[in-house]
Write a structure and sequence with these properties.
rod-shaped; 1 helix; mainly alpha; about 130 residues
Length: about 130
Amino acid sequence: MILEISVAVIAFFVVVFVIGLLIALVQIRRTAREAEKLMETTRQQIVPISHDLTIIVNDFKRIVQSIQNQMGIVEQGVGDIKETVTRITEFEKVLQEKLQQPIIEFATLISAISKALRAFIEIWRKK
């Protein structure tokens, strides 16, 4: 009798185990189907996203290249301005060297003529 009860209990637990295993297998199968659907949806969504990302990356590359080109133009402009300032400074020095002495001499001449005229006028008035 104990043997029959033990066999019945073991058989009951085997049946419960098999039923639990079947339920787990059914759930695993559902989960696998859902995972397959999710993977298909993801695959369908990745293609347009990948395409859009490729377009964005290409646009970004063009923007960066344009900025680099503009920076080159700006650097060249700054260089041109520096060169112009240097030329203007050199021109100013040349003008100062060439005109300073003649202007001083002209001012001295005008001053001398003015003094001579004053002296002449004073002498003329005294007479």
